[in-house]
Amino acid sequence: MDWKNTYAAIYRAKKDYLKPVKHFDDIGFDDLIGIERQKSALIQNTKRFVDGLPANNVLLWGARGTGKSSLIKALLNAYKDEGLRVIEIDREDLDELIEIADMIRHEPYKFIIFCDDLSFEEGEKGYKGLKRILEGSIEKSPENIKIYATSNRRHIITEYNRDNEGTKVGRNGEIHYSDSVEEKISLSDRFGLWLSFYHGTQQEYLNMVDSYFKEYKGDMEHLHHEALQFAQQRASKSGRTAKQFFNYFSNKE
């Protein structure tokens, strides 16, 4: 792989190769509204990583459509000229992480391995490969690799009531989790930076709508009324909904 001229790649498990990405979403940080705290923390962590300073693996978790994946795209656009590269991998292929890490360990670039919509159901074993790369084994984890993952939930392995059967409360009120719960919590704990995302307020949603309609010359009150109706139909006031409304309303006009 010519990483000098390839800024991102997608791992294709069936053919066991990294497919170079030729066409990028040109989204920037200024396009992402209402997530200033998360944006600032992620930029700071990534800048430290690119500069060769200690940085964390990152779990971006929370409501759908709130900008988690878009932030990763914006990071690449912002820092690709400073040596940042992104490899996207599906959760089903996480057992291949060690092999991918071996391929890029000695490259003179900083790699974010990105897994979107990360979660594991009972019986799935891919999380074991993820744990190895997050924590390291007898071999030290590569210093030029960080894992950035998005998920709709904080604890990314499904929990069941039966998992809590062995949980006990000590005399001092200390909670001693069962082995099953400990294993499931420990995976999330291996991400040093957790960023939570929630649906915004009505005004934050309308601000996102306005950011897409900067050139709009019509009645803004009518536009906002239509935007709120659109959001109500989808039970979501997220950035994704604002963009979908822009596509819908532009075609309607």
From TrEMBL:
PANTHER family reported for this sequence: SLR0930 PROTEIN
Organism: Candidatus Marinarcus aquaticus
One Pfam family matching this protein: DUF815
Phylogenetic classification of the source organism: Bacteria, Pseudomonadati, Campylobacterota, Epsilonproteobacteria, Campylobacterales
AAA+ ATPase domain: residues covered: 54-187
Protein name: ATPase
Domain of life: Bacteria
